[in-house]
Amino acid sequence: MSRKNYNVVLNSTFCTTDTAANLNNDKNYYIDWSAILPDKNFKLTFSFISETNKIQTMTNIPIITIDFLNQGKQIASQQSLTSYQATSSNILGLIFPQTVDINAHLAYLRSDKNFNNPIYLLRPRQNNFNVKIINNLNPPSVWTDDNTIPLSIASYVLILSFEECE
Q: Cβ contacts of residue 91 below 8 Å, gap of 6+?
């Protein structure tokens, strides 16, 4: 018996009005989860692609966070300057550059379900949620490219894929 899959497409240009003027590395979205997902457990995977950015040295790893992941404390990550214990995390996964023009140092950021591990969770309950693209510094800050005046990540599409668990 096949399991049902539900795809939710988040486009950085179609965020909520309160973050429409924000840089692309900090966007809010609204999804009525109860209208599209049954009240079940899910395996969450994702795909991601952005427009091009200038990436020359790639000194910081870009990480996607979604605040609704922290509700159920599904995954663990070190996130403290003073303590090295595992805590709950809102990290969805990592994204990496794909070179478009090696001489101009242009690349787009991408990821797919084969690059990051799945996350198991209950249907999200938080209809208003935030997606951030941060770096791997401690503490993390928003990810920026390698332009002389650093820029936020370019426009992106993030597809969240929810597969029903039995």
A: 63, 64, 65, 69, 75, 77
Single pTM value for the model: 0.88
Are residues 29 and 10 in contact, defined by beta-carbon separation less than 8 angstroms? yes
Span 85-111, pLDDT tens digits: 556 678 999 999 988 988 888 889 999
pLDDT (tens digit, 9 = 90+) per residue, 7-23?
Answer: 999 999 999 999 999 99
Burial (CB count <10 Å: 0-12, 13-18, 19+), residue 126: middle
pLDDT, position 76: 45
The C-alpha atoms of residue 63 and residue 145 are separated, in whole angstroms, by 13
Give the burial class of 30: count Cβ atoms within 10 A of its Cβ; 0-12 exposed, 13-18 middle, 19 or more buried.
Answer: exposed
141 and 134 Cβ atoms separated by less than 8 Å: yes
Give dist(CA 59, CA 126) in Å, integer.
33
pLDDT, residue 35, reads: 96
Residues in the chain: 166
What tokens were used for 81? 């300057």
Q: How far is CA 54 from CA 63, 98, 121, 153, 166, in A?
A: 17, 11, 35, 9, 43
